[in-house]
Amino acid sequence: MMYQIFGLLFVLPVVVYSAACSFTYDNHRVKQRVTYGVKNGTLSFRFVLTGIKSGTTGWTGIGFGSSMHSGIDTIMLRLWNDQIFITDEYVKGHKSPSPDKVNNVRVYSTKVTDGVMVAAFSRSVHSYEQPYDASLVKCSPWKFIIGLNRMSSNGHARHHSVTPIHRIVCLDNCMV
Fold this sequence. Notes:
Blueprint: H1 2-11, E1 21-26, E2 31-39, E3 42-50, E4 58-64, E5 72-80, E6 83-91, E7 98-99, E8 106-113, E9 116-124, E10 139-144, E11 165-170
Antiparallel strand pairs: 1-2, 2-3, 3-9, 4-5, 4-10, 5-6, 6-7, 8-9, 10-11
Keywords: Signal
Protein name: DOMON domain-containing protein
Domain DOMON: 30-149
């Protein structure tokens, strides 16, 4: 009898459900939600930030890496004159990030309407441009930049006003 039950465990199909993952921040003034998921090696994002005053200029984004001292691969979102610009950048140390030589971020849509900024974009899970692109295979440290932060008149990011929220993200749990 015991061998029959044990044998059934290897015959029964196992169903695994996967879904997109998300990060949410809400302090009643700024609401931010980043939904992300992987399909065929591509990591897709939907970024929503609410509570933006008309005419606001600033930057936000997502960083991949342990610390600014060791270097952070970033996807930067800049809001300027009601337009959103999304770039693949790298920062090491406490300075403004610099654009990668190869922009690995693909932008699908952006819009700003009634104080809500929405952007859909993607990048490969695998790293191609060393040392600037972080490999996101398996589990890795991510930094979620909160709200819109100050930038200079020429678009350079100034220091973030809120400490980024650090998460270990395991993309194996975020398959779509």
